[in-house]
Amino acid sequence: MSAPVLQTGPLDLLFAPFYWLLGLWSLFMSWLAGVTGLELLRYGFMHRAILVGVCIGVMAPLIGTFLVHRQLALIGDALAHTAFAGVAVGLFLNAVLDLGVSPYLTAVVVAMVAALCIELITEATDADNDVSMAIVLSTGFALGTTLISLNAGGLAVGVNQFLFGNLSTVSAENAAILLALFTVIVGVVALTRNQLLYVTFDETAAAVSGLPVRWYNRVTVMLTAMVVVGAMQIMGVILVAAMLVVPVAGATQVSRSFGESIIVSVVLAELAVLLGIGVAYYAEATAGGVIVLVAVAIYVTAVGVGKLQHSAAESTAAVAGAHGAEDADGD
C-alpha cells in the first residue's frame, strides 16, 4: 500500500515530522495487512483512522482519570459543544473568506478559549464548576448553530462528519494535527504529573504548599479541550466525552491505586477503540457509536470483575479472622 498523500499548506513545515511518522505508520500497517490478510488494513484512510484511535485510547483516559477523580466528568460535554462552535467557525470562514483553514484547527482554538472561560467564570464569580460549564456549553452550541444557519447549504452538509465522526474522513492533515495534540498532552502530563495529582486529591493543601492551583486547573481544562478536539475526528461531537469517562470508570472498579487506574483505563480504552473500529468497518456502522457501546460493555464487565474481587477479598479476610480466633482459643 502507498504512503498517505501529504497535504500542501502553510502548516506543512511545522507538521513535517508528523507527516513522516504517518508515512512510517502506513508502511507498518501495509506490512501488517500482508501478514494477517485483514482487509481493513489495506486502505490508507483506515491506517490514519486506526492511528487516531490508538492516540485517543491513550490521551483520553490519561486526562479523564484526573477529571473523574475531581468530579469533572461532564466538562468533556461542555468542551465538545464549544469545539462544535469552533468547527462551525472554521467552516464559516472557509465558506465566506475562502481561507482554506482546517476546521479542526479553529476547533482547537475555540475549545481552549472556552476551557479558560470555564475556569475564569468560576474564579471571578465563585460559581460552581457545573454552572460555568453550563454557560459555556450553551454559548458554544448557540454560536455553532447560529453560524450554520447563516449559511445552511454548504455548512449543514459539511458539519455531519463532525457531529457523528467518520473513519473515512480522517485526512493526513487532520491526523498530523492529532499527533501534534497527542505529543503536547502526553508531554505536559509527564512533566506536571505530580503537581496535577496533588491538586486533584487535595487542592487546599496544594495551595498552602505554594502550588499555583489556578494555573494547574487551567492547564487541566486546556488539555481536556485538546483531547476533545482530537477525539472528535472519529468519535463525533456528540459522543466524544464518553472516552474521557467510561474507560476510567471501568478502571476504577478493578484498580487499587491512581497509577494503576491510569494504566488499566488506557488498556480498556485501546480495547474499546480497536474493537469498535473493526466492528464499525465490517458492519458499515458509525464508528463513534460502536466504540462507545464496546466501551460500555467493557465497563459492565469491569464492574462484574470488581465485585468478584471484592467478594474474594472479604472471604479471604473472613477465613483469616476465623483462623486467628481459633489460634487464640487454642492458646
UniProtKB/TrEMBL annotation:
It is found in: Membrane. It comes from the Archaea. CDD domains: TM_ABC_iron-siderophores_like. The keyword Transit peptide does not apply. Gene3D superfamilies: ABC transporter involved in vitamin B12 uptake, BtuC (1.10.3470.10). It is a multi-pass membrane protein. The chain crosses the membrane at residues 18-38, 50-72, 78-97, 104-122, 134-163, 175-192, 221-250, 262-283, 289-306. Belongs to the ABC-3 integral membrane protein family. PANTHER family: ABC-TRANSPORTER METAL-BINDING PROTEIN (PTHR30477), METAL TRANSPORT SYSTEM MEMBRANE PROTEIN TM_0125-RELATED (PTHR30477:SF0). This is Metal ABC transporter permease. It comes from Haloarcula saliterrae.
